[in-house]
Amino acid sequence: MGVYRDLRSSQGVYRVLIAQLVARFPWGMTSLIILLHVEQLFHRYTEAGIALAASSISAAVAGPVLSRMMGKYGMRPVLAVSTLVTACALLAIAYAPANIIWIVAAAIVSGFAPPVAPAARTIYPKMVPGKQLSALYALDAAAQEIIWVIGPVVAVFTAVQFGPPWGLTIAVLILILGTTWFLSNPEVSRVAIPTARRRFGAVLTRKTVLFATLTGFAFITAYAALEAGIVAIYGHEGLEGGVLLGMSAAASLLGGVFMGHRALHKWSLPSRLGIVTIGIVMCIFSTNFWWLAAWLMVAGFGMAPALASIASLISSTVKFSETAEAFGWSNTGQLIGAALGSALAGVFIDSLGPTGAFVVAAVAGALTVFISLLAIPVVPDLRGRDASPIADTEQFTAITPPEAIG
């Protein structure tokens, strides 16, 4: 715990951390509420899967583009405009008629989400010493698990109590308030991201960024499918699903606090993702509440530490001018995973029941472990080392005085 107390010596760290958490919180709600909303409109999960897939394709394009634009136009303008666009699109989905074309069009626009996560993770290395970054990324990862796990609890509760349209409306209000709070922090204006010199997408040629993006994609695909299966078991009116996901969140927070701050090394990702996958696989064998609770907590314990490892992998291996775009690709992979996991789970739930969603989650979890094993040769050992981004250096022309010639 002393590691986390040391972070308080850096002014504004916890304020920025909490503000970005609130700004990102709606993304733990929207996929599930859209799933519930569209299923209620069409009485099938397949149409809901189509809408979520449309959003994921849009996010795949918009995420890295918006992140890179922060280096050219600044964080505040990019975040403010994208927040307004996304808010309007989500409200359009909430109050749209039962027309799949209209809903898909609005879902595409909603993919232009504000890149708050890349912005925050770009600011972090300028706020704390390099040796404290692992601990800060661990807290950020634990916060992200609140988004992906507590968010669905809030989503289910609001959808059950007030209806999915009101759930999306609440998500929009949180998005606007959270982003406004984040932008009001002075640290946002103090950190200027240098303009990247390489072409757009070139950062993916760094194997560490590519592996981090693919790992995050498969990881969140697994969890999104898992939570869709939980919702399918207990239906639209059962709060037990929210309780189960909340228990998993608690385990994730414990994992983040007690294990996530440990410095990255070559076996960090495979070991942490292995814990998650074991918990997911065991959910296939029974839908008993207490059985699911036990194994969801096992899976949860590895979640925040795994996400902390992914963040450290990116931060320690890219130039500062490329961090926003690199985290943009990573965040996009996770957003696509959230939507794709829900979409695939919806199709398999229609054909096989809730267990079909758990099978999707188990396959995605196994894929995550496989990718992390392939990444071992390029993962740095950061134990006792600085995890800060690589400093940008500019080329210059040396001028030789005439008297030195000859």
Give a structural overview.
The protein is mainly alpha-helical. It is 73% helix and 0% strand. The chain has helices at 2-6, 13-24, 30-42, 45-73, 75-94, 100-110, 116-123, 133-162, 164-184, 186-190, 207-234, 240-258, 268-282, 289-315, 320-352, 354-374. Helix 2 (13-24) runs parallel beside helix 8, helix 2 runs antiparallel to helix 9 and helix 4 runs antiparallel to helix 15 (320-352). It is globular and about 55 Å long. The model is unreliable at 394-406 (pLDDT under 50).
What's a quick, concise take on this entry?
With 406 residues, this protein is mostly helical. It has helices spanning 2-6, 13-24, 30-42, 45-73, 75-94, 100-110, 116-123, 133-162, 164-184, 186-190, 207-234, 240-258, 268-282, 289-315, 320-352, 354-374. The longest helix has 33 residues, at 320-352.
Give descriptors for this structure.
406 residues, mainly alpha, 16 helices, globular, disordered C terminus
Main structural class: mainly alpha
Q: How many β-strand runs? A: 0
Number of helices: 16
So what's the overall shape? Answer: globular
Largest sheet: none
Radius of gyration: 21 Å
Helix content: over 70%
Write the layout of secondary structure elements.
Elements: H1 2-6, H2 13-24, H3 30-42, H4 45-73, H5 75-94, H6 100-110, H7 116-123, H8 133-162, H9 164-184, H10 186-190, H11 207-234, H12 240-258, H13 268-282, H14 289-315, H15 320-352, H16 354-374
